[in-house]
Inverse folding.
């Protein structure tokens, strides 16, 4: 059983289960006595205004009276400058941690607080297509089942996985199946925005707050209010900005760069990363409290090599989707399909899509594009890595797959050497240039006993 944040996912038994943290507030005193409210969000605001999560129709209660915020230590109750004060077990407080069974007083109203976990069974979906995602493997249908169950909630989701595994599609599908589907879906690639601009991109800025700020600008969180914001490659976010993101997650409020006003936002946060954030926390590169806040529902997008049974379905999906309108998708030979199936796909689903799209555009065989030698674009890489290339020799009785694997080793070794030399031995740059997951590149280098430093010094 994996325990991550507030969520436990049991993978060894069927069906899998997800335990989502919830809390229950029961009115024990006042006109609504006996009424129960079950709240699943990270921030619970209570007051008589309809903008609150829990509306108490009582004149002694302020418009926005108090809030309960879930953090790494538990649940914190905080008074929001109410007229009649907020009380915890009879004592007036500004903020304090609340225990199970505690009573919160607001004006003439008292509410009993009870935290609990809602156990949700996750059965593999019967669908092979969900949103923009395609898959019939058990791993993908379990993800489909999880998405179908948690999409209607506002639970924060953290998606981890290698480059090209479709983390953005998971995020978009979560939004499309949620109650926020008609509202904005705003994407911010934290790894693609310059470090000096990412704060403005997320939080917005006021006119004159920095050089070039000629007008006030809304950030992603404001633009996504009412909908969802997708923070892609969140692991690239600098440590100095992480506390500000934590404030948005915990309190659903922000300040623009150069601004003094606090702005409330109503949104769902979905984050994705190719990094192991738990490892980044241990290295001191990522805040533990932010990791806890994000990791309410974790989803791991599997690599394509770990779900090979989906490759035939994906091939047909991309052929149909990428063939120009009015044309019939081309038929692929069994040899071509076998070549595509046998390929290791270091760039995952994105690489497969690119190969199909490029083959359709050029009118060539996609199977040739993943052949070990003589294919595009890899032929140029192999040629650049060496001035001479051995002539291909085939052995009778050797299967297509065994023959391909034999020559694939020749290609991979040369391609890796060329790639690293081009990146001056910088593995991170090499991985980005090849659109390859960094961990997988390390795996290939170990396989062929290639030293990145030695290659870069050549």
């Amino acid at each position: 059983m994996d325990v991550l944040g507030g969520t436990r996912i049991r993978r060894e038994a069927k069906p899998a289960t997800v335990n989502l943290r919830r809390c229950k507030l029961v009115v024990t005193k006042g006109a609504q006595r006996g009424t129960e409210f079950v709240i699943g969000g990270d921030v619970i605001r209570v007051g008589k205004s309809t903008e609150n999560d829990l509306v108490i129709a009582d004149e002694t209660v302020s418009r926005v009276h108090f809030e309960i915020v879930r953090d790494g230590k538990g649940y914190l109750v905080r008074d929001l400058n109410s007229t009649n004060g907020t009380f915890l077990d009879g004592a007036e407080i500004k903020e304090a941690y609340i225990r199970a069974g505690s009573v919160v007083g607001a004006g003439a109203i008292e509410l009993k607080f009870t935290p609990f976990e809602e156990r949700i069974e996750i059965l593999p979906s019967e669908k092979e297509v969900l949103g923009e995602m395609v898959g019939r493997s058990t791993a993908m249908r379990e993800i489909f089942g999880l998405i179908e169950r948690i999409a209607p909630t506002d639970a924060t989701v953290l998606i981890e996985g290698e480059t090209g595994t479709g983390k953005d599609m998971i995020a978009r599908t979560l939004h499309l199946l949620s109650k926020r589907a008609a509202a904005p879906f705003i994407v911010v690639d934290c790894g693609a925005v310059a470090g000096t601009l990412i704060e403005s991109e997320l939080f917005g800025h006021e006119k004159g707050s920095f050089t070039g700020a000629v007008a006030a600008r809304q950030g992603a969180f404001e633009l996504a209010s009412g909908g969802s914001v997708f923070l892609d490659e969140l692991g690239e976010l600098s440590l100095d900005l992480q506390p500000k993101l934590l404030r948005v997650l915990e309190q659903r409020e922000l300040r623009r760069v150069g601004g003094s006003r606090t702005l409330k936002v109503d949104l769902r946060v979905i984050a994705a990363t190719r990094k192991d954030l738990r490892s980044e926390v241990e290295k001191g590169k990522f805040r533990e409290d932010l990791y806890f806040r994000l990791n309410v529902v974790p989803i791991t997008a599997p690599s394509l090599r770990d779900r090979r049974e989906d490759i035939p379905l994906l091939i047909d999906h991309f052929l149909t989707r990428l063939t120009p309108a009015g044309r019939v998708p081309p038929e692929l030979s069994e040899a071509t399909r076998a070549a595509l199936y046998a390929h290791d796909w270091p760039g995952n689903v994105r690489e497969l899509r690119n190969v199909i799209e490029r083959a359709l555009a050029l009118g060539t065989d996609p199977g040739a594009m993943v052949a070990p030698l003589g294919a595009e674009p890899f032929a140029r890489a192999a040629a650049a890595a060496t001035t001479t290339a051995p002539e291909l020799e085939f052995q009778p009785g050797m299967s297509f797959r065994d023959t391909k694997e034999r020559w694939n080793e020749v290609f991979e070794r040369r391609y890796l050497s060329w790639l690293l030399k081009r990146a001056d031995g910088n593995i991170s740059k090499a991985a980005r240039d090849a659109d390859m997951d960094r961990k997988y590149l390390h795996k290939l280098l170990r396989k062929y006993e290639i030293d990145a430093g030695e290659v870069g010094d050549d």
User: Anything to note?
Assistant: The first helix runs from residue 138 to 150. The chain has 15 helices and 22 strands. Confidence is low (pLDDT under 50) at residues 1-13, 373-390.
